[in-house]
User: Fold FAD-dependent oxidoreductase from Yanghanlia caeni.
Amino acid sequence: MSFELEFDVVIVGAGGCGLTAAIALHDTWPQATLAVVDKAERACGNTVLSSGSIPAAGTRFQKAVGIHDSPEIFQQDLLGVAGEHEALHLTRALTESSAELVEWLVDRANVRLTLVETYKHIGHRVHRLHSPPSRRGEDLVNDLLAECERRDIPVVWHSTVRELVTSGNRVEGIVYTTPDGEEIRVGARHVVLASNGYAANRRILERFVPEIAQAPYGGGMGSEGEAIEWGEALGAGLANMKAYQAHASLADPHGSLVTWTVVEKGGFIVDRSGRRFGNESIGYSAFAALELQRSGPFWVIADTRVRDTTARGQEEYAELVEHGGVMEGSLEEICRRSGIDPQGLAETLAEVRTSARDGTPDRYGRTDWGLGPLEETLTATRIGPALFHTQGGLKVDVDGRVLRIDGTPIEGLWAGGGAASGISGNRGSLGYMSGNGLLGALGLGYRIGRAIGRNMHAGT
Ligand SMILES: Cc1cc2nc3c(=O)[nH]c(=O)nc-3n(C[C@H](O)[C@H](O)[C@H](O)COP(=O)(O)OP(=O)(O)OC[C@H]3O[C@@H](n4cnc5c(N)ncnc54)[C@H](O)[C@@H]3O)c2cc1C
Assistant:
């Protein structure tokens, strides 16, 4: 078979997974020739859209502020939310290498990360999210791209991978098209699928998660599920296909994220009647399922103190506040402007304040009210649920080798991030914990890059 170009390794997708895999490979075996190919014109995948929060247990950043954490505690937290699922080996491997990943990103990949101490998000018993100081995934990706440039790793934009080239049972390369439609065949001993999941492809959503297929989508448009289709055509297994991350609070109509920190600091969610309809402590992904079962609109109610402390730590929310996306006023003013029923909201507020003051569980079992009872000047933001990304994908081993249904590896094929199975259970939006997306992306990317590097070092 003839190829226009040949590399040791080709990585499909320049998001968190692909760029991390590239740097980890270069770090382990600098002699490897490699290229990263992406269909977008510039970095705009889900890693860019995320808050860049990577969970890790036992890092030196945690130890420096006296936080006791370990992979075992982290695993318990994850399994407590996700329940049993089809990729428990990944939960174990990714938690065990999480501290090493974050310290390596800082020390060897020059990624600026700090421990997030102002929020930890539901399910995490201790502060373990590590994120760029801006809390923006864009900065995370820019740092990874700068490191690729420093190491002379080529990242080729505007080039859509259309198919995998195979010979017998092994993958031998890819075919991509350039912006002017030219087809280029690239040979590679190892192909890494880092092209994310299928949340932008309604046809595949209908097949695996029909309940969310028509919901608004808040992720990158590149997530069209090619990895699933290529893998299945080669006999690959799939795992945790029913899992996804939804979010209960996308600002309506602004479309930006109302961080769940607003809820964690004491906010709550009501519908037009001014009544709550569930325990917000189950988290933003699981709460979205409750919203999807009823008709909106919905509002997150908080006070100016919650708003201002949240905005100080999170730029995207601060911008929403600045652009007038968060109403402020007395209960009567809020209700007049929003159309929320004033009597319903007054009763809800009284009940919630009592629970926050006395520490007694409210009617839904919620006990954690962050900063305590809400004050007189309230805030309200109109919100709705959205799908953010899918968490099911190709069945892989702990280093990202793609496995057939019978568990044997497909030679030459690797997958990580949204292209591979996630660790968020297999029950819709219920099993997702903050950070699971990036742990699967950067965590598997790191393991894939190192495993390929070790293979090449051993001459295989
Ligand atoms: C709004 C939002 C907020 C989030 N916040 C967090 C968070 O704080 N923490 C967390 O852990 N997770 C978060 N997530 C989830 C997380 O962002 C994703 O799980 C993770 O970024 C996936 O990384 P990836 O590298 O697999 O995909 P991406 O970052 O999407 O990269 C995939 C790349 O592959 C390219 N590609 C796709 N198909 C092809 C093809 N055929 N040819 C060439 N290139 C292709 C795409 O253009 C894209 O650039 C969030 C998601 C969203 C949408």
